[in-house]
Design brief:
The chain is 37% helix and 22% strand. It is an alpha+beta fold.
Length: 580
């Protein structure tokens, strides 16, 4: 996440355009470290959310209203008293610091016009919202910082506000080539790291982007750069800062295989290529709202699926241990034929024994070679022979029983792995309902009966449209795989699946037409992406017409058999667009 000085500059520009001259109508404090302002400007009501959360500091416009506590906290009451009907005169950012300052004009108790400053610091765990007089004297803050908490700066009523300078950093907006060279020379670290350690407001991802634009290896030591390389890197930085100063921003989120990976206010060419896709937004506020909404959705789904994952993982571990034990026992039965041969040879050559021998060497008439058979000296040749036949019969029975048991255990492991993959695919809470129902049906979760109440299934398969206009459907779980293959697909439709690993069934509706190569490639990419191999560079995909796919006898839902299939290698990227 690149919530850096450049993103703050983008935010500041948007806030200036929308808020300067606006009147504050309402102030709420829905959380202990969060403020929600309602501001009227140009006949428009705007809601501005400001959060100083240590884990997620942010500021953006929102359409949503968050309810506040019945009794407003002290900081909120102080803001209402002083600037509850104030007018925003100026919005600014000092340098490229992660700070936004609001200058607000209001009438005091005597009716005189005066100004206050509301300073928002978006600095990770050090984030804060500080309310000051015009001269910088702190009136209060949403988080108090005492000398016991910080030796750098106290944030308490009565103290003077200042921006702490904990390290010697350069201002990227004005840094000269000479200063830039000195900063890099003093940093015995990789170039990409030195850039954000030595320049204010530069994030790790922007450091990588500068190295990429300059064609410099970001892992090289910064103090080893030659003068031409330093000059080129400084020029690249200057061009980027010119865009920042001019407000030439391109708010964008970079998705990695469908999930938001990074966001920035400038294009991230270092994240272009296989598996990455960028989406631009009109405003940085719209970007932030979308980014955190999508991130929160993914986080919430992972939290909701924790119990289901635990059930699946526990069952998988138990079955894998059982399977390993069964395979070892099965391997032990491989010597059963040896005991049968020993018994038969003893019946043939046992007459040579006089009693008390510990071994018999004779010719194995199956191979024509000599063989030495160990004997129990206390037993006769006949009794030793019977003993070997008993061992043979016992191992034979074990082999026959374990052959079926190992197949059954392997089917159960495959079934559980397919459910685990379904949990990875799930994007919404309703996607988990069918997965839970499957786990319940197969006895992994105990069913709690509620009279007249059944789980409501609202989840539907993914629906894509190929570049050539063919409809493609992707199952999210085993039940949907079963339905797509045997109810939705007709005989000549094409069926795709990742070879030998758990994954979704992908159906392409051909509607009597011949599919172009591009559609095969796109369907293969979907089958690769919605499989256990989605993080691989290439995945082998089996594809065949649906009429050749048969349900596995006695198999779990979604398990099929097929023969004479075609194969292709697909990248789990370059996905077609989702249908409306």
């Amino acid at each position: 996440m690149a919530f850096d000085g450049i993103v703050i500059a983008n935010l500041t520009r948007d806030l200036k355009e929308k808020l300067e001259g606006g009147k504050i109508n309402k102030i709420a404090q829905p959380e202990k470290d969060e403020l929600l302002f309602t501001i009227k400007n140009n006949r428009e009501n705007l809601k501005l959310l400001i959060s100083a959360s240590a884990s997620l500091p942010l500021i953006y416009f929102t359409e949503k209203n968050k309810p506040g506590p019945l009794t407003a906290p002290g900081f909120c009451m102080l803001l209402r008293k002083h600037i509850g009907t104030g007018r925003i005169i100026k919005v600014s950012q000092p340098g490229l610091e992660r700070i936004i300052e609001f200058e607000i004009e209001h009438l005091d108790e005597m009716g005189d016009l005066c100004r206050k400053r509301l300073i928002v610091e978006l600095m990770g765990k050090h984030s804060n919202i500080i309310f000051c007089k015009a001269d910088g004297t702190i009136l209060d803050s949403i988080k108090h910082v005492s000398s016991q908490m910080s030796s750098v700066r106290e944030v308490l009523p009565g103290r003077s506000y200042f921006i702490p300078q904990t390290t010697q950093k350069g201002d990227p907006l004005h840094v000269t080539l000479e200063e830039f060279g000195e900063l890099m020379a003093s940093a015995p670290a990789p170039v990409r790291k030195a850039l954000y350690l030595k320049l204010t407001g530069i994030s790790p991802i922007v450091g990588e982007e500068l190295c990429c634009l300059s064609s410099i290896d970001g892992d090289r030591s910064a103090n080893e750069l030659s003068q031409p390389e330093l000059t080129h890197l400084h020029r690249t930085l200057s061009l980027m800062m010119e865009d920042v100063a001019a407000g030439n921003f391109t708010p964008n989120i970079v998705y990695r295989r469908g999930e938001p990976a990074e966001f920035a206010s400038l294009p991230l060419t270092c994240l272009e290529g296989e598996g990455y896709e960028a989406r631009t937004f009109e405003t940085i506020s719209l970007l932030l709202e979308n980014y955190y909404s999508e991130k929160n959705t993914i986080t919430r789904i992972k939290q909701k699926s924790v119990d289901l994952r635990r059930v699946v993982q526990t069952a998988l571990e138990r079955n894998c241990k059982k399977y390993d034990l069964q395979l070892r026992q099965l391997k032990d039965t491989e010597k059963r034929d040896k005991y049968k041969v020993w018994g038969e040879l003893l019946n043939t050559y046992g007459y040579e024994l006089t009693g008390g021998e510990k071994q018999l060497t004779c010719t194995n008439y199956y191979t024509g070679q000599d063989i030495t058979i160990p004997l129990d000296a206390q037993l006769s040749a006949r009794e030793n022979s019977q003993k070997f036949f008993e061992k043979y019969n016992k191992l034979k029975r074990t082999f026959e029983a374990l052959t079926d048991l190992t197949l059954e255990t392997k089917r159960e492991i495959d079934h559980l792995e397919s459910i685990s993959t379904s949990l990875d695919i799930a994007l919404k809470e309703e996607d988990l309902v069918q997965i839970k129902e499957e786990l319940t049906e197969y006895g992994y979760i105990k069913r709690h009966y509620v009279k007249g109440k059944k789980p409501k299934i609202t989840s539907r398969p993914f629906h894509y449209l190929s570049s050539d206009g063919f409809h493609i459907y992707v199952g999210k779980n085993n039940y949907q795989n079963e339905e797509l293959t045997f109810k939705v697909a007709t005989g000549n439709d094409w069926w795709f699946h990742a070879k030998g690993i758990p994954g979704s069934h992908v159906i392409v509706k051909c509607e009597g037409k011949e599919l172009p190569d591009r559609t095969f490639e796109e369907a293969g990419a979907l089958a690769a992406y919605y499989s256990k191999g989605r993080d691989s560079d290439k995945v082998e995909i089996d594809y065949i017409q649906k009429k050749h796919v048969k349900k596995a006898a006695g198999g779990a839902p979604g398990f099929v058999i097929y023969h004479t299939n075609y194969s292709l290698l697909a990248e789990p990227a370059n996905l077609p667009r989702e249908a409306e």
